[in-house]
Structures are given as C-alpha cells and as structure tokens.
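pasting for the record
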Amino acid sequence: MRWRLTLFLISTAVVAVLVFWPLADLSFKRPHREGDDQVEQAVLRGLSFIHGTAQTQQNFADYGSDYLWCFCAIASSSSDPEVRRRSWEFGHGLALRWRALHSRAEASVGADELYQMVAGSYAAQCLGVPDERIRPALRQAAARMTANEMYGFDPTREPPPGDIPKPCSQCGARNARGSRTCSRCGTRLVLQDRYGVWCDAIIAAFAGERYGVRFGASLADVLQWLPRMRPYPGPESPRANEYEHGACAVTHLVYALNGYSLYRLRPEWLPEEFEFLKSHVRHAIASDDPELLGEYLDTLKSFGLTRKDPLLDSGIRHLLARQNRDGSWGDMSRSDVYERYHPTWTAVDALRDYAWRGEGALFPDVLLRVRQAQSGSRRGQ
C-alpha cells in the first residue's frame, strides 16, 4: 500500500506551539524496563535506515510525501525523547527539501499528484515547515475533482467496488470501471480487489481531513461502509493479495480513527477488527512478514495491549531477532526502495512506545458515524 502516510495550523507560531512543545521536554524519563535499551537502539537504527534511503534523489522524488508522513507520525506520538528528537530532526530536514520542490500546485493536477501534494503539505506543517500560500490552490484543485476521480468510486453513494482496473502495466493509463483491456494500448488489465480500493480511499480521505481539503467525499463517507466490508479475507483467500489488502484496510481504519496512534481505542468499538488483528499475529510471525506484523502489533497497542501480553511480546521478540545488519527489516534484495523502507517503518512503529493522549478518536464525529453504521447493520440482520 503506497498511499500512506496535525491540527489545522494557521501560522508559524501555532506550528511551534503544537509541534515543538512535545519535543521540548527531552529530559523526560520513562521507568526503565528490561530490554528497553535493545528496543530503543533497534528503533533508532531503523529510523537512520529510512532517513538514509531518502537521501537518494529518485527515492525522494518517488516517495517524498510518504517519508515526511513517516517522521511526522513518529515524532508526534512517541514517548521516548530520543526517538521524538531524532524523528523530528530527520523529518524537518526532509520537509525543507520537499517544500523547495513543491512550492506551487498546478491547475491541472491529477488525483495521485493532488493526494501527494496534500499529504506532503500536511506532514511538512507537522514537521515545522508550513506554507499557507499553497493550501488555497490545493483546495481549489480538490473542489474541481469528483469523488470518482479521487477514489475510483463515490463513497457517498456506494461501497468500495471490485470492478476498478489497476493502471495499465504497459502504458500506465487509467481506464473506466469494468474495463478488461486498456483503451490506449490494448493490454489486459487487472482489477483491484475492493479491500485495496477501500484502503486507498481511507488513506486519502484521512490526509484530506487533516489538511482541511475535501476530495469529493469525507472520511466518514468512506468509513460508513465498514459493515459491508466484513468479514475480512484470510490468508487462504484465492485472490492474489486480497488478504494483505484486507489486513491493510483494517490497520488503516484503526489509524484513521486513532490519528495514527495518538489515541487509544476500545476493543468494543471495533470488535471484529480487534479479533482479526489478534488472530493473525502468529501468521505474520510464521510467514516472516515484518510489514504486516508491524502494523498488527502497532494497532493492537492502541487497543490497550502491552508487552505483558504474550502475543504482543512474541511479535516484538521476532522483530528484534529479524532486524537486518543495515538497520532495516524485510528482504534486503528488493530493488524497490518502498519495499525496503516501509517494512522498516512498520517494524519501528511496532517496537516504539507511545505518548497516548487519552481514550477517544481524532475525529469523534467519524467514530460516531462508524458506530452508528455498525448498529444499523446489526439491526438489519
């Protein structure tokens, strides 16, 4: 999943208050626990690896907004002072680079580019490099774009569909729903499964909500279809990548509600998702998948699980044992840098400790809409 990924900031002064304040008290000390030093060193090595991959010009051109989102999320939610400081320093430097490359929005910007601009601009603000000049242009571009253009479907009218083709593997063209061959070059097309479509929509809608830009439909519109997406596919699914996309949709549903690990959630708010996460941790360990394992452990922490839980502890021990010599996680032979830094990011999230801001949701109205949708679904059964 490649769309990844602060409050509405209106001035540099507000940015300083909201972003720098959590980083100021670097003298804060957590009670020392056995294994803390090993975990912290693993996290810091992982952060350095991610930052190192971003130094390559092509990597940053391809995934700049995602790099910013990574360091913004970690700096904003970590309880460890050194992890906060290191993440913010890495991210701030990258945000300065990103702003220099993205100082304006083109009037004819496409959906993918618009999302990247919004996500990157939000994350750059979070990292202390705001630019209020670009927000009006991005809002205007978003206002000209329909929900179908951004998400591939209209979440205000229908659940995520299964007839949206992936971009053409030969020419990159986007084709109409239901198309089986590319209208430009005739290449056979592959349809996206509905969980991948939903996950992409959750990520895009969340970024828009955080930055104050509406992509034709709100985050609540996207999440209202939660009951229709259950039950989630398991590893035995015959469709290629459907299990991974379903898992990603579950974890990003959690991220959208908890603000990327700012708030704790109650298991009873998302009972089926909580059970899904718990029941698949051991599969991720057995298949040595640090990317999924990292997201499973990370999201389970927001439901209140700690390392005292044997399931969580087994996952953390596995990650600590599987860190590569360069500080990364995952297959070192992969040529696509996303498949190097992203598993490392999720492993770091699984290992680090969080500075929870209490129980609740980043957008309480969205959580209310989700819970109402679940209640309505149960009454209709």
